[in-house]
Design a protein that fits this description.
Penicillin-binding protein 2a (Domain 2); Beta-lactamase; seven-stranded mixed beta sheet; single chain; five-stranded antiparallel beta sheet; alpha+beta
């Protein structure tokens, strides 16, 4: 075959091969166009999925309120920062929509979000379309967002969300608890869940149900025309209303803080309850924590319900009640105080002063809180088996059932005679404060015990329906009304008598009764008990007024720094008297005894429609701190309100009929700031805790509903540290100048 023919054959073969390949390609395209499938993948569905945008609409977590409707746990906006680095995103826009200058952006952004400048550049350079900045760019405040926006850097954007916040800081923190972000095992998405306290107990009620919005988008994420949008609105979580009263809780928090700072105890526990209903009106512990930051939490337990300990002489209430109920107690009978033992095979029981008071009556023994008296009542009159029946009747062998997670119960140690005897006056066996409160409620309810609770009701904010309402529940009837009256009389004598152990707990304007307790702390190293006045737990449980108790309170202070044991009741009596006296006046309970001093509370009258200068002058004469928010000549509103009974030195904020103006809030507490913004109906955000040191709205500026107040707070300790550092810096500068 000639070379020409060979070339022709090769050309034909090549043309044929290319024609075949071309036909296969055309055929494949026609097949795809007709069937819409590639390797069994439906291209139409695939394209739809690519174009589908499915954004979740976050439900707002339910809020937690106090008894009066004050927000104790709420939600505030938070922002997550991200950056677009793809140049194509800008498209035909007249201004850049992506990050143009990585170095400039990093330099300006670094100090705001607290991330190293070089690391920001590294993140920006490593992105293909969009980048985020980890925890440094997450949960940013409104203030941070505005600060970043003011830089006018292209390519920076924010995703908005909600963050849980607690406006009063450590206020009732062991009750409220806190939330945390966890990955849902089913959806593999992060969600906010309750991790402690009420937040955990009612997480399912609070969390709500997220909604969604679906539409078609282009490759840049923009919504297409005729995008077949579907919207499912979110359902916000239910709101929880507690029995906690913010005023009474504040009295308790402030009193405990005073004792904590002065005596530096290991623990403080305080509970205030309505003994008629079982509503817990205040509950607090030291050490406490701030649920907003959860930094340096020293105590993860709500000691009021989770800390069983040997309570000391407060247990004598129940030994006395049992003996009177059984008819074996005769207060006029006498005994030899000081020391007692059941026979020579057992150790002596001693009164707290070792030598006793000689031969005295049992009623005197109650006033003196004599261990010997109660040892003899248990062993010689009542009997250990009968007393054990009463311990069970008072339900010391079971939890109270309070609606908080983490409740524990103590142990009735009752195997040996010495266990039985010492249990009668509060040693050896252990109980929690809430168990003692529940048992003592018999003295306010004619012998019936009431179950304690902290949740008043639950409301659906979407339709205002009450989905749950708590009710008073009586859970036992261990003693009779006649026994109640006799016990109350004896416990009152411990307070009003000069030889009573509770005389430091007398109230100025109200009759009260109760029982002190001084318990030795077990030695954790070698058994037995620790020595010294600063190794004791001091406690008191009392009620007021006597005839019809409105409030019951338990307070315990463990291992305060004191030199002598008789100073121990200074810690508990200060808290008891401060909280009870102020709370009873706040509740407008009629005083039932002559005051040794003038009542330190006043009813706010004749405020509204009265001349501003006249009202301010009168309030200052009454020893109130007064702030006027406005430039009008008449008062139209205030906090507290006209008609409220308030304590002297209370901060009264007045609103006038003129335009509201911004007062100087320097050195205000966060609670005072929140009262101001609630009165003026403006927005607020805050940083830190303690007292206000900075405000973003200048003093005297006019305010509107769009005003957004931002304050920075610092504790007195932090302020002192800053001042010391500033003085040291100035001294160094002065020294350097002198050297020169």
């Amino acid at each position: 075959m000639s070379k020409i023919n060979q070339k022709s054959v090769m050309s034909i073969m090549l043309v044929g091969i290319f024609t075949l390949i071309f036909m296969l390609i055309i055929g494949r395209f026609m097949y795809i166009q007709i069937t819409g499938e590639v390797q069994s993948v439906d291209l139409i569905n695939f394209a739809d999925k690519f174009r589908d945008s499915n954004s979740e609409l976050e439900a707002e977590r339910g809020e937690i309120f106090d008894k009066t409707g004050m927000v104790l746990a709420g939600n505030k906006p938070s922002y997550d920062l991200y950056a677009i680095v793809d140049e194509e995103y800008t498209g035909n826009s007249s201004k850049p929509l992506h990050v143009e200058d990585f170095q400039k952006t990093a330099a300006k952004l670094a100090h705001i979000i607290g991330l190293n400048e070089a690391r920001i550049v590294e993140i920006l350079e490593g992105g293909k379309f969009q980048v985020e900045f980890g925890r440094f760019g997450s949960n940013l405040t409104e203030e941070k967002k505005q600060e970043i926006e003011s830089l006018e850097l292209p390519g920076l954007y924010f995703d908005s969300g909600l963050q849980r916040y607690y406006p009063n800081g450590s206020f009732a923190s062991h009750v409220l608890g806190f939330t945390e972000e966890k990955v849902n095992e089913e959806t593999q998405k992060e969600e906010i869940v309750g991790a402690y306290g009420v937040e955990q107990e009612y997480n399912e009620q609070l969390k709500g149900e997220n909604g969604y919005i679906r539409f078609k988008r282009d490759k840049y994420g923009y919504k297409l025309l005729n995008a077949e949008e579907q919207v499912q609105q979110p359902k916000d979580g239910n709101d929880i209303y507690l029995t906690i009263d913010q005023k009474i809780q504040t009295f308790l928090e402030d009193a405990m803080t005073t004792v904590d700072e002065k005596y530096e105890p290991e623990k403080i526990i305080g509970i205030v309850m309505d003994p008629d209903t079982g509503e817990v009106l205040a509950i607090s512990n030291r050490p406490s924590f701030n649920p907003n930051t959860r930094e340096n939490i020293q105590n993860w337990y709500n000691d009021a319900i989770s800390y069983p300990f040997e309570p000391g002489s407060t247990m004598k209430i129940f030994t006395l009640s049992a003996a009177i109920e059984e008819g074996v107690y005769n207060g006029s009978d006498t005994y030899q105080s000081g020391r007692y033992r059941i026979n020579e095979n057992y150790r002596y029981i001693s009164d707290y002063n070792d030598k006793g008071w000689g031969v005295i009556t049992y009623d005197e023994g109650v006033r003196h809180s004599s261990n010997v008296a109660f040892a003899k009542i248990l062993w010689e009159q009542l009997g250990p088996e009968k007393y054990l029946e009463y311990l069970h009747a008072f339900q010391f062998d079971q939890a109270t059932g309070i609606d908080l997670k983490g409740e524990k119960i103590g142990t009735i140690s009752y195997r040996y005679p010495m266990d039985q005897i010492t249990t009668a006056f509060g040693q050896n066996s252990t109980f929690t404060p809430i168990q003692i409160m529940k048992a003592a409620s018999v003295l306010a309810n004619e012998g019936k015990m009431v179950k304690p609770f902290v949740t008043s009701h639950i409301k659906n904010p979407n339709n205002q329906e009450i989905v749950f309402e708590n009710k008073t529940e009586y859970v036992g009837n261990p003693i009779s009304p006649d026994t109640v009256e006799k016990v109350k009389d004896l416990l009152e004598s411990t307070v009003v008598s000069e030889d009573g152990t509770g005389k430091k707990f007398r109230l100025e304007n109200f009759s009260t009764f109760g029982k002190t307790g001084t318990a030795q702390m077990p030695n954790p190293e070698g058994g037995g008990y620790m020595d010294g006045a600063d190794n004791l737990l001091y406690s008191f449980i009392g009620m007021a007024p006597k005839e019809d108790p409105e409030l019951m309170m338990y307070v315990a202070v463990q291992r305060p720094k004191i030199d002598y044991s008789f100073y121990g009741s200074d810690t508990t009596s200060y808290i008891y008297k401060t909280v009870m006296e102020n709370s009873l006046h706040y509740l407008e309970v009629e005083p039932d005894q002559d005051a040794e001093q003038t009542i330190k509370s006043t009813k706010l009258e004749d405020l509204y429609k009265q001349p501003t200068k006249q009202v301010v002058s009168r309030l200052k004469e009454q020893e109130f701190k007064v702030t006027v928010a406005g430039n009008g000549d008449q008062i139209v509103d205030s906090t507290p309100k006209e008609g409220d009974t308030v304590l002297r030195n209370k901060h009264i904020i007045l609103q006038t009929n003129g335009e509201p103006t911004m007062p100087d809030v320097s050195d205000w507490t966060l609670r005072e700031v929140l009262s101001l913004v609630e009165l003026l109906e403006i927005k607020v955000d805050f940083l830190g805790k303690g007292f206000v040191i900075k405000q973003n709205i200048p003093v005297g500026s006019k305010l509107s509903n769009d005003s957004h107040l931002i304050v920075e707070l610092k504790t007195k300790t932090e302020q002192q540290t800053d001042q010391n550092e500033e003085e040291n810096s100035e001294n160094q500068d002065t020294n350097q100048s002198s050297d020169e």
